[in-house]
Amino acid sequence: MKIRLSLTFLGFLLLTRLLSAETQDVSSCRIVLAPGSKLWLDGDSTIHRYESEASVIQIDSQVPLNKAVAESGKTPSVDILIQSTTVTVFVLTIPVEKMKSGIVGLASQMHKALKHKAHPNIVFRMRNYQAHPTQDTEDAENLYTITVEGDLTLAGVTNRISVETLGAIEEDRLHATGQKNLLMSDFGVTPPTLFFGSIKVANEVNIHWDLNLTLTSERSDTMAPTPLP
Fold first, then answer.
1. β-strand 199-216 against 193-194: which pairing, if any?
2. Which residues of the chain have pLDDT under 70?
3. How crowded is residue 150: how many other Cβ atoms within 10 Å of its Cβ?
4. What is the pTM of this model?
5. Hey, what domains does the chain have and what are their CATH numbers?
6. How far is CA 48 from CA 109, 183, 199, 204, in A?
7. Best label site of 40, 131, 167, 168, fewest CB within 10 Å?
8. What is the DSSP track for 51-78?
């Protein structure tokens, strides 16, 4: 009798765990990058402009769902990113060594300038965001100005920044584009040089993004790297 009771109790516990896990699975979703996404930086030098592109981006995110959406068991529309602005976690990580450039020697010098061995990742951690319909376009219903505030960590130095991006709802994705100008010196970075100092890179760097964001209800215990074409 004791054995039967123990087995019954064990089965009850397992069933409770499974039901709890299923509920947790649909109580939130996460943001993933769709094909065609791109993030790159460019700037000036004493010779010509240069460009360096991220070949890998990692995103860790959490988007809580209300009860009705969660109980439906369906992946919600990306509209919820705009309408409710309830994203509680959004961390974008770029491995420094995955920043590539077509200029010979620039990538390696950039990696050194960013102190990649001690600080292998560039990390942006969102703190809050606001979205408002864009008023100066004919298609304002599907276009939004999104202001994001967060902490950017570069070469081991963290600064609070605010970025503005244009968000367009395109079927099952949010197409986010924008740019942000930064000074390397604000992060303790010395602009790299090439060819024994004959080519010098300017202190100001422009960060550009063209991201296709979608939602998935699939769980992820780790940040999955997203290789970009």
1. antiparallel
2. 1-26, 67-71, 73, 84-85, 104, 136-141, 194-198, 219-229
3. 19
4. 0.79
5. 27-227 (2.40.128.110)
6. 16, 18, 9, 14
7. 168
8. EEEESEEEEEEEEE--HHHHHHTSPPPT
